[in-house]
Each structure stands twice: as structure tokens, then as C-alpha cells.
Amino acid sequence: MEELVERIKEDGRVLGEGVLKVDSFVTHQVDPELMEAIGHRFAEVFADAGITKVVTIEASGIAPALFAAKKLAVPMIFARKAKSLTMDEELLTSSVYSFTKQVTSQISISRKFLSSDDKVLIIDDFLANGQAAKGLVELCQQAGAQVDGIGIVIEKSFQDGRDLLEKMGLRVISLARIASLKNGEVEFLEGDA
Ligand code: 5GP
């Protein structure tokens, strides 16, 4: 997605150890126009898939997932990282090792929001080693829901995430694909959409 790639070139900042900082338009301050365009692109790609729910993980997946869900006219569910006192129903849960925070946390979705009737599009802001996406797939599997695909805003293709998800038989659509972050430079591959 050209618009996204240009924005990463302009405003993305490479931190040490293979991390890209995009806090001025994705992960902290959010650009609604860009997020809407991203959400619509995902919705276009999955328009004929019969998606019934869009699933993401808090916090930075929520913006693109919400715009995709609105366009597909389905609900958006975000997995929670901390258990809230108000989550008193039965939960779907899985453990996710966070690439950026380097801790393992439990993620959860109330069982009542996903069922075996659902066809799910999973969306997240970044794909690194695939642990967040895998955790979301596991939540869907626990509910018996079918995962139709994974939409990623920024994929770091030099890490193992895509490989892991494709080996699980999942379709991965990444709007920006990064080949390398070496020497403080962002090098891109051709994106999927
Ligand atoms: P994974 O689970 O695929 O290893 O990592 C994906 C998660 O880690 C994303 O949800 C995102 O929050 C975070 N993440 C991974 N790599 C980066 C990065 O380079 N920059 C930022 N801002 N977040 C990242």
C-alpha cells in the first residue's frame, strides 16, 4: 500500500534491535485518514470471504480493525491483555510472548462473542515473530470459529511470523513488508495489497 509505505519512509524511526517506531501515526498518536484507508483495503481484500467478525488485540490493532469491520459491516472484537473485573463470563484465553515488551501475558475474549458460526478476519498492527497473531488464532479455535485470514499493517519480513502463520495454513495479507531495518534504514519488499 503505497500511501502507508510513504508514511513509514517519512515518519517511521528505526530503533535498535529490529524495532520500527511508528508512534506518530499508528501506535500512540493515530492518523484516522490513514487508518481508514488501511481498514478499507483489508475490507476490499476480504470482501468475498463471508467474514462475520474482525478480531484484533489491544491497543494498536483496534484502529485499523475498526475501520475494516465498519466497511465489512460486522462487529470488531479486541482481545484484552489484562483481565478486567467486568469480564465475569467464561473466557477464551491464550498466552502471548510480547516481542516489544519481552514478557508473556494472557490474552482473552469473552466466549459469548465468538462461536463456531463465525468466520474471522484477524488484524494487527505489526507482524514480527507471529506470537500475537497465533494467540488470536488460538482464541478463535477454542470457540470453533474459522479464521479466514490475517491482515497485517506492517510486516517485518526478516522475522519468522509469516512463515509460522502460513505453516498453520493461514492466508497473510500485509500492506507494508519490511525486508530489513539494518543501519537505521528501512528497506521494503512488495506489499500484498
Ligand atoms: P509478534 O507477536 O508477531 O512477535 O509481534 C507483534 C506484536 O509486537 C504487535 O502486536 C506489536 O504490538 C509488537 N511489535 C512487534 N514488532 C514491532 C515493531 O517493530 N514496532 C512496534 N511499534 N511494535 C512491534
TrEMBL record:
The keyword rRNA processing does not apply. It comes from the Bacteria. Pathway: Purine metabolism; XMP biosynthesis via salvage pathway; XMP from xanthine: step 1/1. 5-phospho-alpha-D-ribose 1-diphosphate binds at A128, N129, G130, Q131, A132. Residues 33-156 form the Phosphoribosyltransferase domain. InterPro entries: PRTase-like (IPR029057), PRTase_dom (IPR000836), Pur/Pyrimidine_PRTase (IPR050118), Xanthine_PRibTrfase (IPR010079). Xanthine binds at L20, T27, K156. CDD domains: PRTases_typeI. Homodimer. Belongs to the purine/pyrimidine phosphoribosyltransferase family. Xpt subfamily. This is Xanthine phosphoribosyltransferase. It comes from Enterococcus caccae ATCC BAA-1240. The gene is xpt.
